[in-house]
Design a protein that fits this description.
two-stranded antiparallel sheet, alpha/beta
């Protein structure tokens, strides 16, 4: 951790941003290698083609779930946890402070015969929006295990990990608010 959670005491609103650049995927050299593997496995069932559209759907969902599930899940959980303190996060570039979630590692989990929740590691940086060099806090979370809700969809499992990340962050923040 760099900075101090006490620096956040009087902040009531955050612009929330997300960064997935150079994110590692558990068991793979890169995110690209992960996607290639998963897409090829889906094509394998269609004689090397994508007759049923599963490969294209997997790749599309992998990226769209970020905006459709992970990010809203993090923001909603953050806001729910801090509503009694009148603190909120959202997509608001006009907010004086930005809370950036940089995902550094992800494990999508699975649901076959057994269930394994998703996990993520992330670095959260809070800084002055108009002066990004004025960093108030940098805090890293390692392998936050997803909140269990719906295991069937990979996007829902990963969303649970972002909710848990928000929970972990807000628990730390509450100690100083």
């Amino acid at each position: 951790m760099s900075g101090d959670l006490k620096n956040l005491k009087d902040i009531t609103e955050y612009n929330c941003t997300f960064d997935y650049k150079d994110m590692e995927v558990n068991g793979f050299e890169s995110e690209e290698a992960f996607l290639k593997d998963k897409i090829e496995k889906r094509k394998k069932y269609d004689d090397g083609k994508d007759l049923k559209g599963k490969a294209a759907a997997f790749e599309k969902d992998w990226f769209e779930d970020r905006k459709d599930k992970y990010e809203p899940g993090f923001i909603a959980y953050f806001n729910e946890q801090l509503k009694d303190k009148n603190i909120k996060a959202g997509t608001n570039p006009e907010a004086k402070y930005t809370l950036n979630v940089k995902t550094t590692w992800i494990y999508p989990g699975y649901e076959v015969a057994n269930v394994e929740p998703a996990k993520i590691s992330a670095t959260i940086t809070i800084y002055e929006t108009t002066n990004p060099s004025n960093v108030l806090l940098i805090i890293a979370f390692d392998k936050s295990i997803g909140i269990v809700k719906d295991y069937r969809g990979q996007g829902d499992r990963i969303k649970g990990a972002y909710e848990k990340l928000a929970k972990n962050l807000t628990l730390q923040m509450k100690r100083f608010l």
